[in-house]
């Protein structure tokens, strides 16, 4: 199943790369799709392509949505490019979303800033818990990663367990994985999945399109 999906993602990415090589202007949603596909492929090459597309977009003054940036951050983290992930995350204008909340925790975990993680969770439990105020929500999967990191530090694990209980009581924990949160499609968005069925070879070079982009 994964093999088939990987081929589909690769084919869609190749179409997007050819569009870029032919100077077709990307929309905000096109960048979301491109970065999302790169994230799903999760390879050194897809990370390189994502980085090139992002840097070109910024040089041209094009707008990259928070959603696109989150995919880029997640891909960088998966490729152990923590400094790059931190740089991209710091440029997100409005990081107040469930995706950003959980990516921020993963960033701090990979930087081994465990006390900062505990402080983030503490602030989330001590904020205004009125039902009319949007509260930070944490993925159960991400919280499990936190516990795994602090388990050998008695003082921190005790604090974490206390905060974990408070987050559950206040309804600030979701069973959705970080991947599910990242890939959630907001209502009303048009699907671009037709790209999965498009051609997979450049008409100009008759070479894989990834090679065409990286050669330019």
From TrEMBL:
Q: What is this protein called in UniProt?
A: Pentatricopeptide repeat-containing protein 2, mitochondrial
Which molecular function term from Gene Ontology is one that the record holds?
A: RNA binding
Lineage, opening ranks: Eukaryota, Metazoa, Chordata, Craniata, Vertebrata
What's an example GO cellular component term for this entry? mitochondrion
Q: GO biological process: any one?
A: regulation of mRNA processing
């Amino acid at each position: 199943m994964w093999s088939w999906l990987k081929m589909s993602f690769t084919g869609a990415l190749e179409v997007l790369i050819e569009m870029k090589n032919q100077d077709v202007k990307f929309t905000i949603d096109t960048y979301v799709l491109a970065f999302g596909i790169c994230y799903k492929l999760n390879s050194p090459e897809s990370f390189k392509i994502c980085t090139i597309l992002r840097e070109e977009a910024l040089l041209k003054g094009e707008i990259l949505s928070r959603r696109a940036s989150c995919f880029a951050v997640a891909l960088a983290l998966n490729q152990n490019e923590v400094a790059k992930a931190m740089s991209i995350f710091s440029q997100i204008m409005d990081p107040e979303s469930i995706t950003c909340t959980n990516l921020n925790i993963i960033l701090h975990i990979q930087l081994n800033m465990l006390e900062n993680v505990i402080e983030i969770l503490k602030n989330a439990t001590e904020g205004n818990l009125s039902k009319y105020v949007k509260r930070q929500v944490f993925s159960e999967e991400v919280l499990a990663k936190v516990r795994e990191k602090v388990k050998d530090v008695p003082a921190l694990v005790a604090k974490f367990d206390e905060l974990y209980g408070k987050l559950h009581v206040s309804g600030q924990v979701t069973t959705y994985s970080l991947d599910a949160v990242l890939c959630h499609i907001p209502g009303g968005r048009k699907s671009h999945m037709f790209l999965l069925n498009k051609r997979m070879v450049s008409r100009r070079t008759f070479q894989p399109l990834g090679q065409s982009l990286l050669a330019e």
